[in-house]
Hints:
The two termini are 26 Å apart. This protein is mostly helical. Helix 5 packs across helix 6. The chain has seven helices and two strands, in the order H-H-H-H-H-H-E-E-H. The longest helix is centred in the middle third of the chain and has 27 residues, at 51-77. The relative contact order is 0.14. The chain has a single domain, classed as Arc Repressor Mutant, subunit A. It is 51% helix and 4% strand. Strand 1 and strand 2 form a beta hairpin.
Amino acid sequence: QVIRLMGPADLIGMAPVVGDTIHSTRATALTDGFLCSIPGETVRELLSTSTDFALAVLGYLARDLRVSEDFLMVMTQRPVRRRVADVLLLLHGHTVHGDDWDPLPAVQLKRKEIASMVGTTPETVSRLLADFAAEGLIRLTRVSLELLNAEGLQTVAGEETLPD
């Protein structure tokens, strides 16, 4: 199951470095890129000797937690039509809530992968994509999906506060 999309300069695998856990997930690159690996011992040494580095890591982890919590709320509390709109915006480098994060590069996911992210079936995703295309929000081809109206898709996704 797809549980997160990460963009340029995002950190993965930090929990085992700063805590007593084992990383139990895997990552797959959707586009070409570079991976930089820093030994855990080096990170732990920097955490213990540099307050600035430690605060930067804490800030990153806090942001990472917020992203996870927001994504979980969106994907469990919203109707599927809105969840699909959220994911399409995310895939095309937009954020529904206007956060100041670096946008993700535009990527293409299969309907099955989008369905996995939003907790529905590929057939439901196909139907919703066809609806969005009929509404002029996106353009579908056999191999790609083009965002035509980000503001309209943001309206579908909604911007009201989620329940506490």
